[in-house]
Amino acid sequence: MAAQQTSVDDAQVVAFAGKVETSGITDIRSFVNGEATAEIPFGRMVAHDTADNEVDMMASNADVPAGIAVHSHAYAKDDELGDTGIKPNMVVSVLRRGRVWVNTEDLAGYDDAVRYRCTASGDGAGEFLSADPTGTDTVDISKFARWLSVRSDAGLALLEIDMIGAIHRANDS
Questions:
Q1: What percent of the chain has pLDDT over 70?
Q2: 64 and 37 in contact (C-beta within 8 Å)?
């Protein structure tokens, strides 16, 4: 007979990039990772591809955002998941409306702008930030998103988005 549980680990993980919060209205749509070789990490903004059912990593401020790649326990670890995310040609769950945990590159507060990086050296495309950096590699989606948690540095933050019907390009703001 197994021993009874007598304690609870209070260091349990409560959030991670791409984790959807189920409170509120949620709209998640399935797409295919249209990248030739790149994996799509959870918690990143992804762009509509030329094919209606495909998404890619953000590559420029002219890309049309589709939503945020979200985590699911339905992914087959060996077949669909790679080292950093969802493998090419695999189905990607994309949150278009709802609340999701994302990594932010800087501090985030309730009234701060919501931006995502559309190009970045390395694999930072699609990551979120609130500051207005110099250059043209970020897109402000504050009209469609807001921070629901406060951070004083980089790390996980809760974000609420509503990209339904929002076709937003950097030059349209």
A1: 86
A2: no
Round to whole Å and give the CA distance between 137 and 80: 29
- Which structure tokens are listed for 108? 């985030």
Number of domains in the chain: 1
What is the three-class DSSP state of 135? coil
Task: Provide the CA 51 distance to its chain's centre, in angstroms.
Answer: 20
Each residue of 14-33: pLDDT tens digit?
788 889 987 778 899 999 99
Over range 70-97, report the average pLDDT: 92
Where does the pLDDT of residue 4 fall: very low under 50, low under 70, confident under 90, or very high at 90 and above?
confident
Does 71 map to a domain? yes
Task: Tell me which H or E stretch contains 122.
Answer: none
User: Tokens representing 30?
Assistant: 């399935």
Question: Cα–Cα distances in Å, from 83 out to 7, 42, 65, 86, 98?
Answer: 33, 12, 24, 9, 26
Q: For residue 114, give its domain range.
A: 20-172
Place of tokens 């076709």: 167
The verdict on residue 64 lying in a domain is: yes
- For the whole model, what pTM was predicted? 0.84
d(CA 69, CA 93): 6
